Each structure stands twice: as structure tokens, then as C-alpha cells.
Known about the structure:
Chain A is of the alpha/beta class. Chain A has helices at about 10-20, 50-60, 80-85, 90-95, 105-120, 135-150, 160-170, 190-200, 220-230, 315, 330-365, 390-400, 430-445; strands at about 65-70, 125, 155, 180, 205-210, 235-240, 255-260, 275-280, 290-295, 300-305, 370-375, 380-385, 405, 405-410, 420-425. Chain A is about 35% helix and about 15% strand.
Amino acid sequence: MRYLPKSPAERREMLAAIGAKSIDSLFDSIPGQFRLKAPLNLPGPMSEYEIIEYFRTRAAENSCGYTSFLGAGVYNHLRSVVTDSLIQRGEFLTSYTPYQAEISQGTLQAIFEFQTLMCEITGMEVANASMWDGSTATTEAVLMAARLTGRHRIIVARSLHPEYRQVLDTYTRNLGFHIQEVGFAPSGQIDAARLDEAIDKQTAAVVVQSPNFFGILEQIPHLAKLAHDKGALLVVAITEAVSLGAVHPPAGADIVAMEAQSFGLPPSYGGPYAGVIATREKFVRQMPGRLAGETLDTLGRRGYVLTLSTREQHIRREKATSNICTNQALCALAVTIHLCLLGKEGVKELAAQNIAKSRFALAELEKIPGVRRAFSGPFFNEFVVELPRSVKMVNADLLREKIIGPLPLGSFYADLTKRALFCVTETTTRGEIERLAAAIRQILSKPV
Amino acid sequence: MSDRIKKVGRNISQNEGLIFEQSAPGKRGVELPPLDVPAVEARAALGAEYVREGVAGFPEVSEIEVVRHFTRLSTWNYAIDLGMYPLGSCTMKYNPRVNEFVARLDGIATEHPYQPQEVSQGCLKIQRMLLDCLMEITGMDTGTLEPAAGAQGELTGLLLIRAYLEDTQGRPRKKVLIPDSAHGTNPATAVIAGYEVENVPSDARGQIDISRLKEIVSDDVAAMMVTNPSTLGVFEQNIAQAAEVLHSHGALLYMDGANMNALAGVARPGDFGVDVMHLNLHKTFSTPHGGGGPGAGPVMVKKILEPYLPIPVLIEKNGRPAFDNHRPKSVGRMRAFGGNFGVLVRALAYTLAYGPGIRQATEDAVLNANYIRKKLEDVYDLPYKSPSMHEVVFSDARQKKNGVNTMDIAKRLIDYGFHPYTTAFPLIVAGALMIEPTESESKQECDLFIGAMRSIAEEAASNPELVKTAPHSTRVSRLDDVTAARKPVLRWKPKSFSETPG
Amino acid sequence: MYPSDYRYTKEHEWIKVSGDTGTIGITDYAQHELGDVVFVELPAIGAKITAGQLFGTIESVKAVSEIYAPVSGEVLETNIALSSTPEIVNADPHSAAWLIKIKLANPAEASALMDAAAYQAFIAEKEASA
């Protein structure tokens, strides 16, 4: 077997050195009745060529050659060859968590740079070295808010990603939390009047997303004031990180829980991505996840270590801030490299292109009879339109044109049937947008 | 450089500052295609109150500077690709390159989790095949591939147990039993699942103490979390009896599968009474650690727990694989978008490479650990003499007499060209040296490691200061982690920034 | 080394009583066992603490220790110097690094604790058995 570096003679030699009669005898400590007598029934073994063929065949059964208008928490953005080739350097790819600082300075300094970039983009004072994804980061932000306030009531915007809300529910169900949802106004923003009524002295956190699940920007400073007036914290989830190139960072937020997938990570059918928690400096000891810090060595040279680790499970065990251990380090590294390449001008230009293209797409769609925009609030690169027909049926027709249509909101919101969530990024060409509009016009012009 | 150090020579290592220190206005590392629709002014499109004027602290650097920067940083890391990485309980094995290649294919990396299932059949078939393989390897009935890492797998498993007990017995019970040898995530997870933790002392051999378990177990106990082989690298002889004791009280047995690399192809947890377990695909199934992630932590279960699996559940519909979100008894959703699919792809590529031959990998891993044990047991103290499987745990008891502890030996190992073993864990061994070579090491590499460890044992006796001040050959010497924790500096700030008080 | 007018617990806290006020800290033995202290977490002013119960934590780089109340009472003052200079716990545990001052619920409670001689005998025995 090509991954195993021993010859039969070497195995015999090693067995002899151990003083064991056979390989099997090394497993004598496993009671006999539990030792397998026959080989496992597994496919393979396969050569490298066969493995590639197997996955190429599977890839061909997916959506190659289709144009997609899906976003909803996972986005198609430009990625660079530089990022992907650098993260495949063995020293990054095949190293462990940098507990041994002297031989992990590469990973540690990169994490420190990641933390800096995340602080800059979110406008917060400290950021951790990554969480599993945006949904678990949002949940961890809520648990953190409960520790900070000693309260257990959580108010969540209905316009927070539905799957994020489900994850939050799964985690908090057994911990004595009370979760209340607040709906949205005609603008698509959270209903601020209802929110104000809902917050009370037991509220630990208000959780909103911006841009929200409908693509609409929330009025964060106002929401922060409503929360803070009652001693609650404001948690802001961000699923479309590219928006921060143009949109004001969530000023007044206490904890930002972000999904950084948009910065150079492929959609990859759901992951791996990179979640982030960023917060105020004074809350850092209640923040979950690893942190790299700058320090000096015995000769006064600058270096980096994992720090404040008494928060973590390997030391505090059942009293830890979180059970997270393995995080998304390599994904965070990809985000770091991608953002360094983009730089100050690139993030701005990228955001500007998303704004321009999504507006062009909305204008094209609004020209179609019976199609109208559903919410009036400001949006970034996703918008909701109301169609005169079932979105699922329209999508079925679009699929025949090799177009993966918008997300039918009805699958998450029973009151939002015939509403479709479109996403248009810098990767969508004008030609593709025009083809989409023409196809929908044609589909809607046919009798039902 | 001492001629006893055989694995490494002296290399030039490039100095490199922070990327932010190389920034200058007007440089850029990426160019976008020209905009093919009319440009829109952000302020006009979003409204003045929503617009930001650029991201102040972002660097401005060119492509070549980015490439050099991260390449230089990479050279400051140790890696499996450079040599043996004997971290106990971490299973640092070779990460096959073909896994990386297939995870990046168009049609694999490019797929959106919400695209219609009719154009996702390839993704669904990959998950079906991986789940089938994991069922065969573990002897369990079904499972979920959703959990993002081992710790989330543990939580999923405990939530499944909770839901099962509530559904069948009307209450979730109160306590989870955890042996004192367990990894720290076990108790941390139990608390998040809403349970109290009761620590169970190991017996004199470091094994589950069945008579003690019988005393502790009650109608308040929901489950026991056992790592098997234990963190001592020893197979739990009494695992089946422990399962019986728990089952007779209506409780379940959870197995932490972190050490599955000792069992794959040799024995199956499903056969010795385990009800639910997680696997770390970034350990046994070769997906890269990447400096701390991403991983994936599939959870495998017996039939009785199937109704509670997290959504979406992989099912068969009209003869094709499909996701089912309508599961009334489900514990809910653990993570958005279904899981770390890219990691699952790599794990399947690994499994297909071996097929039934995966047993050979297990055998080689156990062979390496026992070989190292044999060659070091005369110089390092072996606190538990039970037969080792894939890892061996020594203690620093002999070197301690000269003031040299496990961390010092570990740091000195760096000078010999190796990554340290796991220090000071498991907690039931004072001054532990936990060594897991994995199957990926040749006899030559094992011999070099043994030579290094023996040489350090001599140094600890003849020149303890040399060991205590190690490493001597790295870019930086021991770092001041006390100041790092007292006065945390967690981000770079521009000079003018940091000089401003407050 | 160990002030004779203080009282001591088996968890290595000290208390100095004057009138109905008690000043509480950790002992030199405790700071030595902990190593370099990096962070001290204390209760809020006005919090009620109960003899034998947790009231705070002290962290070194790789360990967290819990601090137990020697006696019951209400927190009057906490040592704010510890938030910026936790290292004084190592340098001066019996004086500058006091942790909290409390209003004693029952001033007689402290007299049941060990005096300096008894505490020194206690740690000597601990050292010998280790």
C-alpha cells in the first residue's frame, strides 16, 4: 500500500525487536470475541487514478455548467490561485494546532494577522482565531452574552438565517434559555417597535443579522441603543462578509458573529467555512475559541503564542467557555491570504461591483410584468422579489435552461410564498443576468 | 551542532515582519475583471448612514509580497510533511495529496448547499458511500456526517442520548459519567448538553473500574463517555461489561472515537456494546489538521437512536439519495448547510485508497507504538504496564530527579528535528509523555526518534541545563507566555495607535 | 513568613480580622503552587459570600484555581490593583495582593480557623507527603 512506508522484512524485524510472535499478538488485549475474523466489506483499494475517476464521475452528476443565483448564507465570489496554492504548502496544511510555539510561528503569526484583519473589518477590538462557521459562532455569541449578563432571555430577529436560528435552538434547548422571535417591517428590517416592547430586564441579548436573510441592512446603532437601554447586549451576525467593504461595520454591537466564507472559500456543498467571533476588549475572557497573542522570547525577539487558554476546555474542562477544540485554522489562513491580496482598495471595489450588479439584476427583473420588489430597505447583493407564480415551479423551468434559480423563501417562511431571494455577486456576468431575466419573462408569459 | 542530532542540519530561515508593516498606498495583490454593468455610487445605493469609507487597517501589498510573506511564515512551522509528529491522541498521519486534489474539483468545491437535489446527486452519493463505509468500520447501524469537529460530534451524541431518554423514559436523567483519564472536551460538552459531570476514577491499571461503576450508576445516570482505547493507549478490557452495567440501569454507552486508529479493521465498537460514538475524520481518516482545523466529527449510532438524528438526514427516495428535513423527533440542526462536506470528500478518498486493507494501517500504527515502547522502556518510566495499542504513555519520573520534566524533554526533541509528543496528558499520569507515531512512520524514522529520545535521557542526567533551556535551534526561544496572558496583545496596531494611551 | 495575626484555611486562603471587617487573600504557599499569576476574578461589591463556598478564581498560564471564602460576609471592597498588576499576588501575597474586604456575618467565625503555627505545620506535612 503506497501510504505505508514499511517492507515486509522491516515489519518482521520490528516484531522480533518487540518480542512478539505475530502482528495479531499485538492485539491480544482485545477480547477474542470482539476481534474481526474477516476483512471489512469496503470498496477499494483504489489507485490514485481510480480515486480521481470516482470523484470526477460524482462531480459530473452535480451542477457543472449551470449558472446560479443562490446566496442565502453561502456565496460565490472570486477566489485566487495564490491563496489556494499557499494553503497547500505542507507546513500549513499538515501541521497541528500551534501549541508548541517555537516550531509553529508561521501558523501563530498568520492567526495574529487574521485576528487583526477581523478586527479591522468588523470594527471590533478583539477577534478570535476562528469558530466552526457562522451558525455556531452566532450560537456561541449568545452563550457568551448569557455569561456576561447572567441572563437567559434571548430575542432573535426572524430575519436571522433560519438555519442559524435552528442551531441556536438545538444548543440552548437544554440550558434554560427562553428565545423569542421578533418579525420584520415592510422595509424588511426588524420591526423595531416590537423589538423595543420585547426587550426587558431579563434579556441577555438581541440577535440580528445584517445584511439580514432578505439581504436588507439593519439600523444597527438604533438597535444597539434599544438593547443597551435595558442592559442587554447586541449580537450581530454577518453571513455576507464582502458587504463590509462598503457597509458601515456594526457600530454599537457588543459581539459580532461572522461567517467569513465569502473571503476566498469555495461553497463546497456546505463547508468547511470559517466562523469568527469579534467583541469588545473588556469581554475577551468570556470569548470562546483560540487566541494568538504577541510576546517576546528569552532574548527579546518578537513572537506569538496561544494565550488566555484558561478559558478553554483542555484546562477548565466542565467550566470552559465552550467545548470547541479543533476550529477552522486552514480556512482562516485562506481568508487571511485572500484579504491581504484584496487589500484596502480590493475590498472596496469588490463590494462596489456587488452593489452595481445586484442593482442591474433587480432592474432587469422589475421590467417583467408581475415581478416586483418585496422589501423597501437598503440591500447589499441579495434582494427579494415577489413572483406571480410559485417560485418552485419557476425554478423547475429555469433548471431546464441550466439556471439554478433563486431561493424560494416559502421553504423557510410559510408567510412568504411566491417570494424569491436572489443573489448576484461580482462573478455573475451581465450576460447571465440578461439570460435569467429573459428566461423568467418567458416562463411567466406561458399559461399556467 | 551535536553529531548526535541526525535528522536536521542548519538552515537559513528568512526574517519576516507582519504583512501590515509592508503596506504602502497604491499597491495591490489582485485585479478584478472590469465591471460590465453601470457603476453605482455606494452612498447613493445604500444611503449615507450605512456607508463606510474603506477599511482603515487593511494592508496594501502586491501579489509577490503576499506569496513571499506566507511562504516565509510557512517555513517556521513543523509539519507531517517534514517528519514524524508523535502527538499522542492526535493521530498525525500522512495527509494524502490526492485528497486535496479531488476536494478541489469543479463540481465538488463549487457546489452550493441549497442547489436542487437533482443537480446534487454526486454530493449526496459521496456522503452515502462515506456513511456506509463508516458504518462498516464501526459496526454501527447508521449515523450523521453533520458535526463540524469531534467536540460537536460529542455534543450531538449526548443530545441524541438526551432525546432518546426523554422520549422512551420521560426524562433525560441528570448525570454523565466521565473517567478521570478523559480528554477535556468530554466534560465541557456534557455541561453544554445540560448534564452534570461525575468523574469516575480509573483502577490501578488505568482501566474502567467495574465495581466502582456498579456503585455509582443509578437512575440519574444518562450515559458514560469512554475513550477506547483509553488515553493511555490501552484497550478497555471491561468495555462490554461496562455497557451491560449501564444498559441494565437504562443508561447508554458513549464512545469517544478519537483513538479509532487503533481499531479500524480489527474490532468494531458496535460489537462491544457502544450505543453512540463520534469519529474525528482529521485523525483516523487522514484529513489535514491545517494548523488546527477544519475537521469533521461524524456520529455513528445504533438503531434505537436513529429517530433523533440531527437534520438533514440522508435517506433514500425513489431509489436515489436525498436529504430529509422532516424528522419530528430530531434533536434539531447542529450546523448550518449540512456539514464540512470538503472534509468528508477527503475522508472518503482515504478510505477508498485502502479499502479492506485499512487493517494494515492499524497494524502498522500499533507495531510502531510497541516498537517505540520496547526501545524506550529502559530509559523512561512506564507507569502503566498494560499492553499498548496505537500509542504509549511514559512519565518523566526518572528525569524529574535531575529537575528535567516532560515539557523540557519535549522542547529538546525539537532540537533533534521532531515535533514534541503530547505533554502532561492524560491527567492520571503525572508528567506524561504521550507518544503516538501512527502508521505513517518508517522504521528509519522510528529509529531516529528512538535515538533522539535516548540521547535526551542521557543529557537529562549529564547536562540537565541543556535540556531545561531547550530548544536551542529554533527561530525563537521559549516565549514569555506569562506576559502574553497578563497584558494580552491580540492584534496589530499602527505605531501611532499603540503609542496613544488607553 | 506567615503573619501571626492572620487566620488560615486548608484551601490556602488567609483572613485578617479587625473589628467586624475581614481582609482575605491567598497564602504564599498557594501563590508558589500556582506559579505566575496572570488573572484574578473577584466578586462584585455587595455580593454575599459563604464560608467554604467559591468566591473567585485565580489563573496562571495553564491552570485555574478556585478561591474559597474562609468565612461568611458581604463584599465591601475588591483590590482593583489586581486587574492591571496580577503579578503582585506572586510578589506580595500577604499584604499588597489582598483580594477582598468583607463585612463579617459572624466575627467569631474566623477564630475557628488555623493560626499561623497550625497552618505552617499543615503545609509542612503536605510537603512531606508529596
